[in-house]
Amino acid sequence: MNAKHANPPGASRPGQAEGPLAVIEIGAHTARLQISQVDADGAWESLEEVLLPMPLGHDIYRNGQISAAHTRLTGEVVRDFMKVLREYGVKTWKMVVTGAVHEAANLDLLLERVRDISGVRPELLEESEEVRLLFLAIQDVLQGRHGLENRNAVMCMIGPDISQVLFLEKGHLRNNETVRLGTLRLREDLGGHVSASRLRELIDPFVAAVVNSVARLSPKQKPEMFIAVGSAPRALVEMDSRSPRQPVMVMSRRAFETRFNQIAGTSPSQLAARHQLPDYVAESLEPCCNMLGHFFEITAADRLIVPMISTRDALLHDLWRERTGQPDRFLPEIFSAAVHLGEKFGFDGAHARAVAGLAGQLFDALTDLHHMTPRDRLLLELSGLLHDVGFFISSRQHHKHSYYLIRNSELPGVSPREQELIALISRYHRRATPRASHLEYMAQPPAGRVLVTKLAALLRLADALDRSHRQRIRTIRVDQQEDRLVLTASAPGDLTLERLGLDRKADLLKDVYGLKAVLEEA
To answer: pTM for this structure?
Structure first.
């Protein structure tokens, strides 16, 4: 396949054409290779696309692990894909495994065998990272269209194994939920081959229960927009369409209901033959329609908006962003989601923002001392926002409750490892400092334990500086004077409580950095 198409806004700049980029995606049902390049005019050109059916999902659903034969097949497919990359002279590429492949009991063995056979080891595309990639790609393609930046929306990322549901307020991410609800997983859960006439009857109550549970996370007012991405939604809006493919396709609610009724009475084999669809897409269509129909009910939308992008497109655009040195535009969405998570648990938002801000100031002032990265700063600020959410359960030992709630919530754009670190840093904002008797802390590798301790020392200090919860101190000047860390604040009112807090919480700073914290007024 060789085609040119306009590049999404912000993803490239004219005059920066370089070698091609490639993505290899190993899913439970397909293996895909996509090679593209950006020309000198800033347009994306697709050089090669290969799709091969894969039987990994059937192994996982039935046996919980991937057979030796299919493990070998995966390695051979990757080996052949890598030959294609070399033929095209691809230097920048990414290979990921997605979906139900993550659930295989022998996942580590699969990754090692792929490396043994092909010479390269795939990465795991975490669910939170896939949310980040697709959100940014959708934001790009919808820029200036449909008023996303001024409206509330439900965004469904529907996959064969799992789906992601995002709630947006005025274009910004409020929260997201991962649901073990996929178009092909639904069929497998029902035993595989179910007649078309019975499928809706069997699936409907299950999907309704899941959607109603997710709906409780939505804003009180029904979202006005309904956005869906995935191979099945893309096929749905293109069926019988007489117009050429657009970057964004739209289907009215009435047209959707008509299409759903047509699909429900047709077998997957008939759909595949009639509309020239891959078998796995044809099998996905009715479960997809069932899911979309229930999600329609929790919105006030009168149409379905489908950006015609895939995970591979999103990965390619992220590779281009990294190549061209563009910043990660998802960072504000991470903070937005963290704030809404705090609100879900009734946190003191003013205090949380103050602590996060002070922690960031301390981090920046001490960079020559701690030698940590900007990503570590993000973990510290998120810990500052969420350190007190444990009050939702109880004020007694709320730091431990904070650990549990953060660890078991969803933060898009944050890896599971990073989320565990945020939970641990928050856990140590008060009371005992990290100890060998703390199992969760000791489960971290040595570098992780050091990072938690260094950041927790700064968080404790920042929390102490708003001990009164009245935000008397908003900015500080930080001066290191031999073995003292002098914090100078220009703040109205009595700072007795903040000095008392500093006396109690600066212990870890002394242990880690060898500095005694002192608060002075300007």
So the answer is: 0.90
